[in-house]
Each structure stands twice: as structure tokens, then as C-alpha cells.
Amino acid sequence: MERPTNKQSTTNTKTKPQGNKKGPKKKKFNLRKLILGSIIATILAIICAMAIYIVVIMNGFKILEMNIDKIETTTESTLIYAQEEGKDAQATEIAKIYKGENRESVNIKDVPERLKQAFIATEDRRFEQHSGVDFWAIGRALVKDVIHMSAVEGGSTITQQLAKNVFLSSEKTAFRKGTEMSIAFALDEKYTKDEILERYLNRIFFGSNAYGIKAAAKVYFGKSNLNDLKVWEMATLAALPKAPSRYSPLANPDLSKERRGVVLRLMADQGYITEAERAEAAAVDYVPPTTAATNTKDYASYVDYVMNEAEDMYGIDEDELLTKGYRIYTTMNPKAQKTMETTYANPSFFQKDATDGQKIQSAMVIVDNKTGGLMAMIGGRDYKSRGFSRIYSKRQPGSSFKPIAAYGPALESGNYTPYSMMDDSQTSFGNGTYSPRNYDRVTHGQVTMFEAVKKSYNLAPVWLLDQIGVRTGIDFAKKLGIQLNPQKDVNLAIALGGLTDGVSPLQMATAYSAFANQGSLNKTHAILRITDTQGKEIAAYKQEKKQVIQPKTAYYMTLLLQGVVETGGTGTKAKMNRPVAGKTGSTGLDIKGIEQYDRDVWFVGYTPEWTAAVWEGFDKVDSKHYVTVGSGSTAALFKEIMSKSMDGVFPITNFVKPANVPTPTETPTGVTDLAAVYEIDKKSVKLTWTPLGDKSSYNVYRKGSKETDAKLLIQSPLPTVNDSSVFSGESYQYYVVPFNPDTNVEGAKSNVASVEVPKDDTLPDGTKPTPSPGVSPTPSPGNGNDPTNPTQSPGGKPTPTPTPGNTVKPSGSPSPTPTPSTSPNSSNGPSPTPTPSNKPGNGTPDKPKDGKTDGEQVIVPKTP
């Protein structure tokens, strides 16, 4: 029996239904429809792909155009250089400042070819062939990822990495990846390959806070010029972007060397280096650089000053400085700055810490006398960047202000020289409202300006300021750049540094530099010029120099201040192996029980080249925080830093005397043994004293009992005078003031000698009185309160000035006109007659006694 086929069975089933059930109806397979559908689907896919591609590309261009500033501008570190003013020597980088990122840019022309090849071989071998996205690399990466069942290779090009770095976050999504690719296409369309590579090398992160290839080269190899890099160093840098922290040669030298080997192998495989070069570069062991770029914290005080000056003088604010990549060239002397910071880090130069551990503070500034350029500065011990800089802090200057308020203006007046006489007697000024005193409570009577400055007497400068006028002192200080309070500082206390607002170390260094620079004052500055990253100058210092005081004043002040550092002066600890002048200063405490100590101590001094001001003290003074070491500490700091900073930098030179400025002649010392005897037979008073030298002459003063003031009796070149103009029954007082006839500069007033002239025919036996000596000489060197004190100013020319042959009539006396004569034994009429002496003159003035070298102190007085 024949079996039915499937077709027959199907037919039978259809022809012979069972009940109401219907079987499924199958469609025939239509190949033609399948092919047609596939073609349509493919066309639609292509259309969609093209649409997506167009959207992606357009989106990339849109993002690029909207954020073009991000690719054209960068946040870049500003570099600060030291460069000697007026010199063409190569500048030395001293610091860099940045906002978050230590970034430096470099032009692609300054990137060596091998360095470019190292990055291309490692990051994007088909960089020159693709259009921003390497689909071949993406496909290769996908295959490897599938084979290894993990992401072992990426497909991002250098252009894509730049897009991600500039425009995108680090999120890993398909959308972000697509956006990255779109921006990469746009970048490749807009920029050349070199422009893309330049932007990439300047932006990527290399670890150790280094952004960009140039910053990385400095951090890891201490090299600013990329052309100085060796092949192994280039490969080390090219190895970093994959994992900067992991492959840092500083942190992980072994892993860095291993990764470097991979980069070198890629370079060799792609024909950029030979096998021999690869092997040699792979074998090198990394050694950290010893001269890497200096970190900002090393020169924090100076860098902070530069930032402040950039804003104050040139209108460049801090945010701009931290982001625009400026190049700032300064006047800083690196040797001086390093010496200063090393010395300040040594605790042996400072007094011991207070009981609560608080350190005494200090600040120092060094200025170039000729230019006003700041050589070095420090704002405090352990100064921190953007911290409180004490170079601006105003404190009481004490005796260091005497040259500015009293001695300088007196010399400027032309009525005084370094050897003019001062009165250092205890005196109350301002109707008795102001009574200063010397540190040791000792007065010295008539002293020269030279001695008063050297020993830092207090009474003499107050007396001097009283003579010249307080306004004269205030005006002189203003010329030197120090503006005193126009209402509260109009008092004699400024002669001792008792100021309302105080002064800063920066102000003091600037002011004293005029003394060192023949009276010429420069504007103090740190910045020479500022350029952008391309070297275009955007700001420059314009010299501001002004003759503020006479060259003679500056030279005479220098002579005075040189004496301070010599034996017997208060600043001997500042003396070094080159000419130096300066002044100590200290302000006393008004705290009960510790009045002998100080609140602030200073030394301000200069060499022919540089001026420096040093201050020490506590920021807040109380019973536990005060200065115990005296101004000798600041003088020692000055010597240590200045001598080491200048060693080998400048030859030893002397202070120069300005043209047409006379050398001051030393004032004769005072006479101490004046004697007066009435000679009855000659009816005259004979005055005798020990001569002071061949170059000295003498002004002889006399005061009768009925006279208010002493009057000049005669000028004598000899140490003996006969006064025959006396009257019977009258008493007289005499004193002698030596002077230099070439300069009319007077010396100290002598002791006062008194004599009584007896009345004629008054003896009991009717005989004429026998000759009797006058009263013994009274040792009164002059204390400022003596009624015989002459009215003429020290240093001024005596008035009147009698000469042999002229007559001088003492005021208030009816006596006949005395006629001076140079004849030793003249008896022709009543006349004071100079008489020669057989005593030889020593010709040498008395030397002042040695004083305390670092104990001078000024009690800041209350305003009278």
C-alpha cells in the first residue's frame, strides 16, 4: 500500500476537517522580499548613521565655538626672576606663583622633534593620518578587549585627549565619549597637527603638580630648555600621562624606569630611535635634580612683596598674576636673600623664646642705594606665604630716628657741622612740660654733635631740635619719605623717635639710603618689568630719582654715623670688613619692674652700595614679651647678613666725598683750668689756661655782677689775657670758649673763674692793698642753666668779633673801652691783653670715654 506524502496529508486534512477545528496557515518564504527589506534597512541605517554623524560633527563644532576661549587661553603659572638692575645678564628664576596648577606654556617650535615623537609613538601612532578619531585604533582596541575579556587598550587619540582635557568631565558614558569624538573632529578641522600637539603638551597633567611639558621638565629634571632633555628623559616624560602618580620617577623610580622602557620600545619599533639608542636610554637610573626650580615658599616675603607691588603700581591683581603666566623680572639679589633667610633660620642670632614658647620677631630690608631696588627682605621669623609681613609694620624707632628728626635737619640748615657743640644738660623744655633724660641718667654738658651721635645721648638732640624748630625736623623727615602726623607729632619728642604712628623697616631703609647716596632718593621698588608668555612687555619701572637733601648734609651725616660703629659707639657690633655707617635705636618699657628692658630695638645702616634696616621685638608687648638683648642684637644681624651677602659681589670701596664739600674740622676740646687773678699793681685781672694747640684761638667771655649775661670780651690767639677794664669793688666771672679760626667752629665752654676787685685805700693800716689772688677756678663745664651762658648758637660765628686794634665795649658797663693788644706786657691804658704762655699745647682733643655698645635706650616720652 502506497504511503501518502506530506503534501497529500496536508490536503487530506484540509478536505476532511474534524469537527470545528482549523489548522494554522503557513506563509511561503519569499527571498525577494527578504533581500528587498535588507536593502531598505541598510539604506535607512546609512541615512541614520549619516544623520548621526552630521549631528555629532555639528555638535562638536558648536561646542568648540561656544568654548573657544578654553582652548585659546590657559591658566598658567607666573614666573618671577632675579635680574640685576641695568644689567643684561641672564635672569635667574627664583619663584613661580599659580592658582592650583603649576603650569607653563611652550611654543611647538621649542619642542624637540624626538620629544614629539615620544608622545606620538606612545599615545597616537597614526596622529598624522587620522582626522581626530582613529577608527582603526578603536577597532583594534575592541578586538583586544574582547580577546582578553577586559579593557586592555584604549583607542583615544591625542586630539581626543585634548578635547577631554579642555571641554569634558571625567565621566565614562557613551554620550561623553561621543561628545569627545565630535569635539576631536572639530579640533582637527580647525587646527593644524602642530597646533593640536602644542595645546596637548601644554595642558596635560604630569604629576607632582606639574601641568604642561615645560613645568614637568623643571620638576623632574630641573631643565627649563626642552632641547636640553636626553632621550631617556623624553621617554620618562612621555610615560607619565598614562598614570602620573604611578609612573612618577620621584615617587616610584622603578616603575617609572619600567614604563620608560615600554615607551622606548615603541619609539624603536616605529623607527624614531635606533636599537642602540633604545638600549642606552633604557639602562639609565633616575637621579632627582639638585637645582630644580625654586618653590615660592623659599622666598615668600619677597614674592609677596612683588605681588603687592604689581597690584599697587601696575594694577595687576592677584588672580591675574596667578593665572596669566606673566614673567616678572625683579631687583632681588639671590645671594642676599638666601643669606638673610639662612641667618633668620638660626635661633642663635635671637634672644631665647618667651616662657610660653613665643619667638621674638624681626624684619629686615636691604635697598640698593643707587637705584632704590630691593635686594632682599624678610617679613618675620618663620614667615609664611601671604602672611603678616613686618617690613610694613610701624614701630617706634627710638634713637635711630635722631638723624632724621634732629641731626639731619640741623646739618641741612648750614649752621651746624659734625663738630658743632650741643648742650646735653638736664633741661625741661616747653615751659617745663617735657623733661627727657639720658639712658644712664648722666648729663654731659657741652658736647660735640659727633660725640652725641656716637654715644646716643638724648638731651643733646632734643636741645638741638628746640634750637632749629620742630617743624624743620618734620619737613626734613617728609623729604626722606616719612610723613609724620601733622597734628600729634609737632613736639620735641620726635627727636628721640617718640612718634604717634611709628615707622616701618621699609621706610627707614629708604630714608637712610639718601644719606648713602649723596642726598639723592630713589623710589623703592622690586619690579623691573613684566612681560607676557610671548615676551611682550606690558609694564616697566620708570626711575624716580630726586635730590631731597644737600650732598654736604648726606656726607656729614655719613661721617657722624661712621663714628657709631667705631670703638665707644653704640653700634660696634655692626662693624665689618668694609666701610659702614649706621645708628642703633631702642624704645624702653613702661612696665613696672622691667623698665630697664626694651620694647623695640633697631639698627639702620649702610655701606657705599646698600642700605639695610633691622627691627626686633614682639608683635604684642607685655610683661612676658619684651626685648632683653638690646640693640646690639640688630647690629650683629646687620653685620652677619650684609658682610656675607656682599662678599664676592662688590669690591671694598669707601664713601665718596661730594665735590666742593669741605671736610669738617674737628672742634677744639674745652679748656678746663681757666684761672683768674687780680694784680693790684697793674690794676688788671690776669686770665691764664693751658693752650689746646697751635690751630686754636679763644673767645673770652666776662660777666659783671650787675650784668645779666656774659659778653664777649676779646678773641685771643694766646692762652693768656690781661683784663685792665675792671672797676674797683666789682666782681667778675670769666669763661673761655676755644674755636677754630678757619671754620669758626666753637669748642666746649671752659670752667668759670671768678674774681673780686678790691676797693682802693680800704685797708685798716692805710696802706695799699697787696696783690691777692682771685677766687679759685670753679669747675663748671656748663649745664645749660648757668646765667653766664652766651646767647649765640653753637657753630655760629661769634658776634661781635673783636680783633687787635678794635674796641669792644661790654654791655651795661660804664668802664672805659678796653683796647686789646697783642703786646704781652702792655700797660698803656686799661685793656684786656693776650699774654704768651710757656706751657706747650698738646694739639690733641680729649677723646670721649667709651660708652655701652648696645645698651642705649630711649624712653618714649609723652607728648608735651
Automatic annotation (TrEMBL):
Positions of the UniProt region annotated as Disordered: 1-25, 754-864
Name listed for the protein in its UniProt record: PBP1A family penicillin-binding protein
Domain Fibronectin type-III, residue spans: 667-760
Annotated Gene Ontology cellular component terms: outer membrane-bounded periplasmic space
An annotated GO BP: proteolysis
Top-rank lineage group of the source organism: Bacteria
Residue ranges, compositional bias (Low complexity): 1-21
Annotated family: In the C-terminal section; belongs to the transpeptidase family. In the N-terminal section; belongs to the glycosyltransferase 51 family.
InterPro entries recorded: Beta-lactam/transpept-like, FN3_dom, FN3_sf, Glyco_trans_51, Glycosyltr_51/Transpeptidase, Ig-like_fold, Lysozyme-like_dom_sf, PBP_transglycosylase
Transmembrane segments: 34-58
